[in-house]
Amino acid sequence: DTGVSQDPRHKITKRGQNVTFRCDPISEHNRLYWYRQTLGQGPEFLTYFQNEAQLEKSRLLSDRFSAERPKGSFSTLEIQRTEQGDSAMYLCASSFFYNEQFFGPGTRLTVL
Amino acid sequence: ELKVEQNPLFLSMQEGKNYTIYCNYSTTSDRLYWYRQDPGKSLESLFVLLSNGAVKQEGRLMASLDTKARLSTLHITAAVHDLSATYFCAVRLTGNQFYFGTGTSLTVIP
Q1: Which residues of B touch A33 (CB under 8 A)?
Q2: pLDDT in tens, A82-108
């Protein structure tokens, strides 16, 4: 399967711990996006990369959130010092420039 | 900040009926997207609308865009149970930021 993959699919952590999520986009796509989705809401845009460059990060939720895409392929999203309010589904998507985005299955984060 | 409003938020309709979902957005955008999300699943792209007056159709779904009115519609024709899902519209702003609506939860009743 050559779709967008995310790992892990579920993560349970204690408040204050750091977590890191990985996203592998569709190989020919140059853009990669991170979103957060809470129950009953639409996805909330966090950041995006074009190749290895992070071109928009002003909507990352706080300085506890950071993302990387070091070689222009997979990406990681890290949340430091997690809080209960960080509990959500974190979605990754990829696209070729402005074309439609293909979404991964998401990582569900639960902060206890 | 851009606001994207969908209505209705919840829609229950009988099989075979027609209905329209509306997506209004508050500032200029050059692209509008429609996605479908099944419960517990991720999002599936349905349509990308690029210009004023654009209309796209796939099966029982048809999407249109009026950039002057900042309005997109998703029309459902002769609904079937398989169309039950949550539908989101999303707009793209300068800087490649994307804003999604709150979604319309559609239930098609036999």
Answers
A1: 98
A2: 999 999 999 999 999 888 899 999 999
